[in-house]
Design goal:
Length: about 130
């Protein structure tokens, strides 16, 4: 099946009100700059998708270690019984609580898939 180039998707509703955001999951924005998967140092430790704390109007689909160009900053959502979901680059899924999420978000390897740090995020992250 081939989709037409210009496809419109219905606006989702929340409590009968229109919501701009179509999903609660966001992609690690660093992956966009470092996408050669064969070079990933620790795919079991670098996240690919995160269920993040996003505003209803955040439709960027990306989350990063620093706020820039409309990308939301780090924040694992814990809306499911105090847990949030992370999909890592090896495609395993983890449920984490807020404390574990905060610890992971401080880690370079959580955000940076390779040793190359094209955007300079490593300097902002205190843990290896």
């Amino acid at each position: 099946m081939t989709l037409p180039i210009s496809t419109t998707f219905p606006i989702s509703t929340r409590n009968g009100l229109a919501a701009n955001r179509q999903s609660s999951y966001s992609m690690n924005c660093v992956i966009c700059h470092d996408s050669e998967t064969a070079r990933f140092v620790a795919p079991t430790k670098t996240f690919l998708f995160m269920e993040a704390n996003l505003s209803a109007s955040d439709n960027t689909g990306m989350i990063g270690p620093a706020s820039f160009q409309g990308v939301s900053t780090k924040a694992v959502s814990t809306r499911h019984n105090g847990r949030g979901h992370l999909v890592f680059c090896d495609f395993h899924v983890e449920r984490v609580n807020a404390k574990t999420g905060a610890k992971l978000e401080r880690s370079k390897r959580f955000w940076l898939p390779t040793t190359t740090d094209q955007m300079g995020f490593g300097a902002m992250l205190p843990d290896p």
